[in-house]
Amino acid sequence: MTFLRKLADILYSIITYIVVVFGLVPLFGFIMKVLNRTEVRNVHHVQKAEPPFLFISNHVTMLDDAFLGPLIFWPRALWDWRFIPFHTPEKKNFFRGPFFSFMMWAARSIPFTRGQGVFQPGMERVIRLLKTGHVVHIYPEGTRTRSGDIGKGKIGVGRMIRETGVKVIPCYHSGLGNVLPIGTKIPKTGKSVKVLIGEPIYFDEFMDLPNAPKTWQMISDRLIEEIKTMRDRMSTEWSELGAKTDEAQKTTPVP
Hints:
- The protein is an alpha/beta fold.
- It has a 5-stranded mixed sheet, with helices on both faces.
- The chain has one domain (2-251): 3-Layer(aba) Sandwich (Glycerol-3-phosphate (1)-acyltransferase).
- Helix 7 (155-164) packs across helix 9.
- The chain has helices at residues 2-33, 44-47, 64-72, 91-94, 97-106, 121-131, 155-164, 176-179, 213-251; strands spanning 37-41, 53-57, 135-138, 167-174, 192-197.
- It is built from 9 helices and 5 strands.
């Protein structure tokens, strides 16, 4: 039984590699890097990290995972299969029909059902994956923002961290909502997207607290505060870069 399980895992990894590396990454990489103007800062925080870890970010479109993945997890995912992250999309939105269900399965998507709580099968699988050395991209808010604000954290992601002790790499991005506005299905072009990645954060101080909803919520609240901090940092850092660029242009002699 163990041999068959290992064989199934190998076959699944091969299928995932083919679909993601030769299909999804070129497509969405082209959308983000060629059709739109995308700038990513501090990607080394991800590229140098050792799995397992949670990658968290704010959530503005139904395809945030696909838009961000080629910018963040590559090129390391080319030789380290653990760097092809797992995702947690809403089942009713993405697992529709045989073809799309297969594509979601091949892209390492674990279906979640809104309203089924923190003990649903998808949650248990994510926890097992983190315990066995994988990477998961998830959104602490649990759903897309409709107003642009960052919402309250859900306790589910707090449970994942409390039960696995994994580190978390935070991210804040701006502009994806213009690439795929709510209500549209085809990505737009010529938009400016900014992505800021933070240093890994750890939750050792929570490991001795009770493994209960109150602790999970405290962890989720901390994640949301981290994303908000990165939002403020993005505004400051890009403003400072613009000021330095303007100053350099002023002081550069005209030939």
